[in-house]
Write a structure and sequence with these properties.
The chain folds into 2 domains: about 110 residues, Beta Barrel (OB fold (Dihydrolipoamide Acetyltransferase, E2P)), CATH 2.40.50; about 290 residues, Bira Bifunctional Protein, Domain 2 (BirA Bifunctional Protein, domain 2, 2-Layer Sandwich). The longest helix is centred in the first third of the chain and has 23 residues. Helix content is about 35%, strand content about 25%. With about 475 residues, it is an alpha+beta fold. The protein is built from 15 helices and 16 strands. The structure holds adenosine-5'-triphosphate and manganese (II) ion (MN). Manganese (II) ion binds next to β15. Belongs to the class-II aminoacyl-tRNA synthetase family.
Length: about 475
């Protein structure tokens, strides 16, 4: 095919291209014919939010016939001259000299008409929803953030490690697992972890990963600083606006690192990623501010400008107890922070991101480092306004004896985690890491209330379409 210019590049280079010929391709958002014999077509190619206005003179016989077939949703190529636009809302427009139609879209059935559709409806047409302003903007921000995650770690000398998707360790306590099996249902008799699994593909029970942390630890204890970034699976049977069964998580793991430095890196990462959205996704951010969440830009700017708050779990609990809020879950030392507690702390008390540190030992998995008080572990959760938890992390237990004691306490068999124990027998070092959910970060940076809108194909209980 002959080269065409992306519409984003056309706008970027408009001064230089004025008066010159350009070729663009994309999908039609709208077409409107004026009485004066001009057809106005709004064309979008996904390279930016803005449409390019195409002007078609209906007195040109070679174009008139083609234009009659152009409707919302159809795809086409246009050649024409770039002109300054007299209309408001755009600086340039393309005066068509040639139009080639690729595919039509029957107006009687094309689901995306020029009106606002509910997000729920759009999820049912996930094959077409990236052609809407909102989902297109999300896709561009998601792309930029993914790239920025790699840039952040690569700039700091971290190695990208590919941890497995199929695993036999379940990262104890991270969430409900999906079982991976090739057994036919009729051969699935026997207990979960026992007989049936012996005849299964791996000869033992296997699962989709709930976290790459344990394997990332292996590489941190050889390469220093590493990160893994990939899909993660949890059979969360809860229908909330912030949980998916399949989501993407970035998990750095650092050798010779304690909780304080762990927190510093997490803060630097979040601030950098928010900054990238502010500087590199301006047009999409403007859209979210205008149509989704008016306070979004202010919130994001504040995140970049000021350091996060830190509060111990114990102090956080006091703050919750003192509040006049009526929470539906208990606020007693030893009970987990629920979304309502998290949001109260970050939205009402601190009004900014807050790191809650040093959780009760009983609440957290065996691998978190036991503090000197022996009641708490060196864990951290970072909470942000509008969402609650966005990061969960900890310093890991590097002392062999304490790790074994923790395993015993939590009923985790050292035989099942032989290799994990050996990492403490051979050249153990203090180390720490955390997990940041990409979709939660996207909710935070786009203002979209439901996590199902920030991943292309959401998987939730009862939904694995497309
Ligand atoms: P929550 O308490 O919100 O269910 P969690 O404590 O189970 O989260 P972690 O195990 O600490 O989560 O996972 C690290 C990060 O991964 C979380 O801070 C969050 O950003 C993200 N995350 C966890 N579970 C999900 C999920 N089901 N869908 C989307 N993101 C998730
Ligand atoms: Mn957590």
């Amino acid at each position: 095919m002959k080269k065409a210019i992306r519409i984003a590049d056309l706008f970027r280079r408009e001064q230089e291209l004025l008066g010159r010929t350009a070729r663009v391709r994309g999908w039609v958002r709208t077409r409107r014919d004026s009485k004066a014999g001009i057809s106005f077509i709004e064309l979008n190619d996904g390279s930016c939010l803005k449409n390019l206005q195409i002007i078609v003179d209906l007195n040109l016989p070679q174009l008139t016939e083609t234009v009659q077939k152009v409707s919302t949703g159809s795809s086409m190529q246009v050649e024409g001259v770039v002109n300054a636009s007299p209309g408001k809302g755009q600086s340039i427009e393309l005066h068509a000299s040639g139009i080639e139609l690729y595919g039509g879209a029957d107006p009687a059935t094309y689901p995306l008409q020029k009106k606002r559709h509910s997000f729920e409806f759009l999820r049912q047409i996930a094959h077409l929803r990236p052609r809407t302003n909102t989902i297109g903007a999300v896709a561009r921000v998601r792309n930029r953030l993914s790239y920025a995650i790699h840039q952040f770690f690569q700039d700091r000398g971290f190695y990208y490690v590919h941890t497995p998707i199929i695993t036999s360790s379940d990262c104890e306590g991270a969430g409900e697992v999906f079982r991976v099996t090739t057994l036919k249902p009729e051969n699935m008799v026997g207990n979960e972890a026992g007989e049936a699994a012996a005849g299964d593909f791996f000869g033992k029970p296997a699962y989709l990963t709930v976290s790459g942390q344990l394997q990332a630890e292996i590489y941190a204890l050889a390469l220093g600083n590493v990160y893994t970034f990939g899909p993660t699976f949890r059979a969360e049977n809860s229908n909330t606006s912030r949980h998916l069964a399949e989501f993407w998580m970035v998990e750095p793991e650092m050798a010779f690192c304690d909780l304080e430095e762990d927190l510093e890196i997490a803060q630097a990462l979040i601030q950098r990623l928010v900054e990238v959205v502010l500087t590199d996704c301006r047009e999409d951010l403007d859209f979210f501010v205008r149509f989704i969440e008016p306070t979004l830009r202010d919130t994001l700017e504040k995140v970049v400008e000021s350091p996060f708050e830190t509060v111990s779990y114990t102090d956080a609990l006091e703050l919750l107890k003192k509040s006049r809020e009526s929470f539906s879950f208990p606020v007693d030392w030893g009970s987990d922070l629920q979304a309502e507690h998290e949001r109260y702390l970050t939205e009402k008390v601190f009004k900014k991101p807050v790191a809650v540190v040093h959780f009760p030992r009983s609440l957290k998995p065996f691998y978190m480092r036991v503090n000197d008080d022996e009641k708490t572990v060196a864990a951290m959760d970072i909470l942000v306004p509008g969402i609650g938890e966005i990061v969960g992390g900890s310093q890991r237990e590097e002392r062999l004896d304490v790790l074994l004691e923790q395993m015993k306490l939590k009923g985790v068999s050292p035989d099942d985690y032989r290799w994990y124990v050996e990492l403490r027998e051979y050249g153990s070092v203090p180390h720490a890491g955390f997990g940041l959910g990409l979709e939660r970060l996207l909710q935070f940076t786009t203002g979209l209330p439901n996590i199902r809108e920030v991943i292309p194909f959401p998987r939730t209980p009862g939904h694995a379409d497309f």
